[in-house]
Specification:
Shape: globular
Bound molecules: S-adenosyl-L-homocysteine
Helix content: 25-40%
Structural class: alpha/beta
Strand content: 15-25%
Length: 483
């Protein structure tokens, strides 16, 4: 009823983990996908945001190029305002909420406004650095204690870290967050406080991401080593004998390690595509260039029922088509029994396993297009991107499950790629290419393409790139086969 006071929503302070999107807790991930609004910082893996349903309001409160993040007081105010509108809000923070992240201020101001707050812990950078570099933070022969300190020392109100006192202690590990900018000063204090110059130490940049860098050194040389190796934030320094005890476990082969790759597929597919790239060692930049909206056309479904009754092939080109088809059946008052006498073809193992999960065994599993001639020749396809069809296919029903809407990129995303162009811009079809140009504008898109390498996966993507005047490299290797 109008005029009735709105019941305030709950604010969840959620730790997003250190950088790999798989390192958020299951609880955090579920809350994120069911909330009404999210306010997020700079170090959050963007897949977590880019894949959210369109109905979730997004607020970026992190650092923008050359500028500080939103002042803490404004962040507090934003959270209160959102919750007072009755929204359930996820306040997503890097790592764990209890380490150097302003959670106390936010929790206090929410509590003062009578808004319920729930804290969901995350994996803090120190744990991530330890795991990613095979380093034990403690050990019976290495360290019995760990200090977590900030190297930032910001503002008059910050309590100074007693570096010299810490340096006089033995038998432990010092972990320094936000230490890169002041590393020289901190190291000087540790040395003058009694830490020997040959104390083992290490700096790890962007642990658990595709651009992770590990630098092992000694206290006396760490500053110059960091400069020489151009170490950049976010980075964590670890000082102490445990550094020598790290096990150099070799991981799986990672052909794309260190490569930043712009991914422009639709929001609904972005997590899947980025996950493949991450498994290959890359750091994906998830920039969905278009959004798919459900499209239900009665005539299409009537035609589908006719084909299904007379028998033919349903061809699923990817997992998204399988999921969307099954959802669309239910929305249109049908279910899998409507497949009737149809046979089913799956392109790629992801489509095949998505079908299996729905209790449908594919009659034909293909590793890729083009399709072989199929009998009978009646085909139902779902793709926005049609698989290359055999020349003999005479009857093809393209059952459109979606309409395409232009994706909008947040201004800080645009700034990020302009400031540091990705190694590769990846395109699989015309929609991705057109959406990319639409999101950036032609001039900026051409400029970015010149400063990066455009990789086009299909003939369609190659010709789309050329039609926009972008040079591109056709991709024929199978490194990225499954995406
Ligand atoms: N709440 C966060 C810390 C925020 S302070 C947490 O629990 O991890 C931000 C600092 O954390 C960065 O300056 C850096 O020192 C460290 N950090 C965050 N992510 C990191 C990563 N992936 N690798 C190395 N250091 C990281």
């Amino acid at each position: 009823m109008s005029g009735e006071p709105v019941k305030p929503g709950t604010v969840y302070l959620v730790g997003a983990g250190p950088g790999h999107p798989g390192l958020i807790t299951r609880m955090g991930y579920d809350l994120l996908h069911h909330c009404d609004a999210v306010a997020y910082d700079a170090l959050i893996p963007l897949e977590l945001i880019a894949s959210l349903p369109a109905r979730v309001e997004r607020y970026y409160v992190g650092r923008r190029a050359g500028r500080h993040s939103m002042p803490q007081i404004e962040k507090n105010r934003l959270l209160v305002e959102l919750a007072l509108r009755g929204l359930n809000v996820v306040r997503l923070k890097g790592g764990d909420t209890s380490f150097f992240g302003g959670s106390t201020e936010e929790a206090e101001s929410l509590a003062a406004a009578g808004i319920p707050v729930i804290v969901v812990p995350g994996v803090t950078a120190a744990s991530a650095v330890a795991a990613a570099s095979g380093l034990p933070l403690t050990g019976r022969r290495g360290a019995s204690w760990v200090f977590f300190a900030t190297g930032h020392g910001s503002g008059d109100s910050a309590i100074p870290v007693p570096w010299q006192e810490i340096a006089s202690l033995r038998g432990g590990t010092i972990v320094i967050y936000m230490g890169l900018a002041n590393l020289e000063k901190i190291v000087d204090q540790l040395l003058s406080g009694g830490n020997p110059a040959d104390t083992p130490c290490m700096v790890v940049q962007a642990a658990t991401t595709g651009v992770q860098k590990i630098l092992e050194s000694r206290l006396g040389e760490i500053v110059s080593d960091c400069r020489r190796n151009q170490m950049k934030p976010p980075a964590l320094a670890v000082v102490g004998p445990v550094v020598q005890r790290r096990s150099r476990v070799s991981g799986p082969s990672i052909p794309l390690a260190g490569k930043r790759i712009l991914v422009t597929c639709c929001a609904q597919e972005i997590e899947t595509v980025c996950a493949v790239l991450r498994d290959l060692g890359a750091e994906p930049l998830p920039y969905p260039s278009y959004v798919l909206e459900n499209r239900d056309d009665e005539d299409d479904w009537a035609q589908f029922s006719q084909v299904a009754a007379s028998g033919g092939w349903c061809v699923f080109a990817n997992e998204l088509e399988v999921r969307s088809f099954l959802e669309a059946l239910l929305r249109n008052h049908l279910d899998i029994r409507s497949l009737g006498r149809m046979k089913v073809a799956a392109i790629g193992h992801k489509a095949e396993s998505a079908l299996l999960r729905a209790g449908i065994r594919a009659d034909l599993a293909l590793s890729g297009a083009p399709l072989p001639p199929l009998q009978p020749e009646r085909l139902v396809i779902f793709s926005e991107v049609s698989p290359a069809l055999p020349p003999s296919s005479t009857q093809v029903l393209r059952l459109k499950l979606f309409c395409i809407r232009q994706g909008l990129w947040e201004s800080h995303w645009v700034q990020e790629v302009k400031d540091s162009p990705p190694d590769f811009l990846l395109f699989r079809n015309r929609e991705e290419m057109d959406g990319f140009v639409g999101a950036l504008g032609l001039e900026a898109a051409q400029d970015l393409a010149r400063r990066s390498t455009v990789v086009a996966f299909t003939g369609e993507a190659v010709s789309a790139a050329r039609s926009w005047g972008l040079d591109c490299r056709p991709e024929d290797s199978d490194i990225l086969g499954e995406i």
